[in-house]
Amino acid sequence: MNKKVSSNWILLSLAISAFAIGSTEFISVGIMPLLTKTFGISLAQGGLTVSIYAMGIMFGAPILALVTNRWDRKKLLVGIMISFIIGNTLAALAPSFAILLIGRIIAALSHGIFMTIASLIAADVVAPNKRASAIAVMFTGLTVATITGVPIGTFIGNTFGWRLSFFFLVALGLVGLITNIILVPNELPLPKPTSVKGIWKILKQPQLLLILLITALGYGATFPVYTYLTTILNKNMGWSQSAIVVILIFYGVAVAIGNTLGGRWANKRPLTALLKMFVGLGIALVVMRFTINLHVLGLLAILLLGLFAFMNVPGLQLYIVQLAEKYTPNEVPLASALNISAFNVGITVGSTVGGQMVANSQLINTPWAGIVMLVVGIVLIWALMKMESGSVTSKDLDLENC
């Protein structure tokens, strides 16, 4: 196939695959009550379906980025979707909670390496001043999954049983596999060779280390609450299971709006935009805490949370690529992979802390955990801003030390 493929088609194919993968990451949030009932586990144990998945991405993304660094991009994408299908099939057929978690890990490994290379492809196929928007388009697959994939999966689970929810994900994976085969070109450029040493090169750069910590804290701040969103809507706010399916759709619409706005705002000055987004998310979490036991006001707080929840994703992913191009130009793919890991460090920390609070009957106080994470993240953004304001001097010092 020698015909040049439009960047719009490439972004569409990535968004379709991201839709399938995004539906998988958070499907257990919607069917959490069904899983706890089937396997006779506690709500906190059920939260492992989120935290274990995040850990699979966290460790898998950089390791698989190293292993697959010189693999053909098209074949890699196809292989990713095949393993994704296998993982969700195993989860659907799981006779025990442990087997279900193994299926989640397999799917998570696919997720991590997909988001790593898809972010780089999206940024590479457009003009430099459109890179955050291109990443946002790719991530739109995730937000559309929040709008439709997760609610539909929840509806299927509530109506036909949770196993059908995972078979629904298998079907989405098949669609993603087909679109990869049809739409993704064969001649995608390979990144420069890298090695394990590249991880140390990235981590010893203060700016890159700071943005990784900022990613984990800012993205993870939503998850002490989001992991138990269905339970909060049902038990604390008094909404029925059928109403929750509809609410999740509107929540996803808010996420999609926030993601699109976040991509546009981050195109020019990503760090300044990220600071404002973190403050907005903090305000949303404070409102959430004080309305968590209220029927209508609580619902409005959840929609506000959705608006800010994932707004920071395009900016965070773009900024680490920009910093890596500046400080470690040979390790850009690995830096992208580490940031995907950082997103999931945040999910792991957030959902685990939330799980501990739930286990101690502190569900209503989970927003405070997210607020603490954000406060630390804001301090680190301020530190990075100060550091980057003197970047010329820092760069000169680095050159002298080489």
CATH class division of the largest domain = Mainly Alpha
Provide the number of structural domains: 2
Strand content: under 5%
Number of helices: 20
Please give the share of residues in helix: over 70%
CATH topology of the largest domain: Growth Hormone, Chain: A
Largest sheet: none
Rg value: 20 Å
Low-confidence stretches: 392-397
Query: Distance N terminus to C terminus?
Result: 44 Å
Shape: globular
What is the H-and-E element order?
HHHHHHHHHHHHHHHHHHHH
Class based on secondary structure composition and strand pairing: mainly alpha
The CATH architecture category of the largest domain equals Up-down Bundle
Tell me the name of the CATH homologous superfamily of the largest domain.
MFS general substrate transporter like domains
The counted number of beta strands is 0
The pLDDT mean sits at 86
Keywords: Cell membrane, Membrane, Transmembrane, Transmembrane helix, Transport
Organism: Companilactobacillus mindensis DSM 14500
Subcellular location: Cell membrane
InterPro entries: MFS (IPR011701), MFS_dom (IPR020846), MFS_Efflux_Transporters (IPR050189), MFS_trans_sf (IPR036259)
Structure description:
By secondary structure, the protein is mostly helical. It folds into 2 domains: 1-194, MFS general substrate transporter like domains (Growth Hormone, Chain: A, Up-down Bundle), CATH 1.20.1250.20; 195-396, MFS general substrate transporter like domains (Growth Hormone, Chain: A, Up-down Bundle). 82% of the residues lie in helices and 0% in strands. It contains 20 helices and no strands. It has helices at residues 7-25, 27-30, 32-39, 43-46, 48-67, 73-92, 97-124, 131-160, 162-183, 197-203, 206-220, 223-226, 229-236, 241-266, 270-291, 296-309, 313-327, 332-359, 366-389, 391-401. The longest helix has 30 residues, at 131-160. The radius of gyration is 20 Å and the shape is globular.
